[in-house]
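User: quick one, fold this
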Amino acid sequence: MMSDTILRAMTTDGWVKAVAINSRNIVERARTIHDTTPTATAALGRTLSACAMLGNMQKIENGSVTLQIKGGGPLGTILAVSDAEGNVRGYVQNPHITLLEKYAGKLDVGAAVGTDGMLTVIRDLQMKEPYVGSVELVSGEIGDDVTTYLVQSEQCPSACGLGVLVDVDHSVKAAGGFILQLLPGAPDTIIDKLEAGIAAAGSVTAMLDAGLSLQELLTKVTGGMELEFFEPTEVEYRCYCTHERVEAALISLGKEELTEIAESNEDVKMECQFCDKEYKFTPDEIRAILKTL
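Assistant:
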């Protein structure tokens, strides 16, 4: 199976930065871990794809990007975290929601996410404090909302397209997306060309399902503008959980709750919220943690 990749490009005239991702394996891995129903798969998959691209574009060594969507819809909170390459992990609060469709075969992600809430991006730029930016959700479809975030919060004229195609057996058939960003001073003719290109290209899922490469996809959405492509980056669903990190989560419960757990004299099993790894703590280990508090 082909690896998931992120491809970055720049128009040869220097006015447009472009990035695209093929994220089928990432989204399928997330679906398997969280046992998501199709609408939840689509929403989480779009969020993971966008977050991976934002992480890759940041180019801060050891930096990370967190993308959080709270829309007030039945899915609850959707969260994704990307490293500096674009490896990403995430979860959705209510992965088992019933199928929501706009019409037969078209998942209604906007209704599942909701529009009464915020999209928040937390950028860890390896400085004292992370940069946090939030915007109100416009559609809950995620691509439009990421576009709004980039335009409003980061003052960068942008366009983001995202898509997840769920197969009849509920597995992920195709997933990916693109982000285009205009550099300061770009003439109106460039904007017109991009708008026409995006409109003519159609949906991300249709392009990926038709077998378009990321080069072809970016050429299409930029309206055939001449592009210089950079070395693609292989990315995957990657969790950084460790026994120590889960222990820190246990400590955060506080002395009182940990004492109760220790007194129950039973093993404690904690599952990572991002992946399917389970961590076990014995009563003795809990008591040892208590002694450090």
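User: anything notable?
Assistant: The first helix runs from residue 24 to 34.
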